[in-house]
Design goal:
The protein is mainly alpha-helical. It has one domain. Helix content is 60%, strand content 0%. The chain is built from 10 helices and no strands. α2 runs parallel beside α8 and α3 packs across α8. 31% of the residues are buried.
Length: 191
């Protein structure tokens, strides 16, 4: 199965299971701020770098653009700042440390200081942790599931993702507009 097919399947699966922040971002049609002087609203600089790196591992750059190209880290920061409740924000921030905790436990370094092979090993450990978490039907959402949902929704709603990646973009009836104020169209459209 190629990357494009895997993304399509993941998007379909996530489409049925999106909740909370991810669904709100998709329903409100927001996107990452592309300005060069952009600063994060919720995540710290280190947290933003960590989110960017994990997002890129979820959707790496191949013959199509990756999560960093689509600025998924900015999308995630905006999603958490604008749409997440304060409890969800703090839960996300607290759980995000699992990547550094596992990296320090296994390699005695922070996640961002690891080489690509080591990062993949840590990601495998986190994914295994997520499977155990979900099999136990624990309350809440595992951090990797949350990051994956936000990364995919950010990618699929970005101009880079739409025009150069996963989707087939046909500019009918007009140009790409990833973030349209709901009040200007009056209702939700389906294509």
């Amino acid at each position: 199965m190629d990357r494009r097919e895997a993304l399509k399947i993941s998007s379909l699966i996530l489409g049925y299971s999106l909740t909370g922040t991810s669904a709100m971002m998709l329903l409100n049609g927001c996107k990452a701020d592309p300005k060069s002087d952009w600063t994060p609203s919720f995540l710290s600089g280190d947290e933003l770098q960590l989110v960017a790196e994990i997002s890129e591992m979820i959707l790496p750059k191949t013959d199509t653009p990756g999560a960093k190209d689509a600025q998924c880290d900015r999308y995630i920061d905006t999603a958490l700042f604008v749409f997440a409740k304060s409890e969800e924000q703090e839960d996300f921030r607290k759980k995000l440390h699992i990547f550094d905790d596992k990296a320090k436990e296994k390699f005695a370094k922070a996640f961002l200081a690891l080489n690509q092979n080591e990062k993949e090993k840590i990601l495998d450990l986190v994914v295994a942790d997520m499977k155990t978490f979900e099999a136990a039907k624990k309350e809440g959402k595992h951090i990797f599931r949350h990051l994956k949902e936000l990364t995919i929704s950010g990618y699929c709603t970005s101009e880079v993702g739409v025009k150069g990646g996963l989707l087939d973009f046909r500019p009918v009836p007009g140009p790409y507009q990833g973030c349209i104020d709901y009040s200007t169209i009056g209702k939700t459209w389906a294509l």
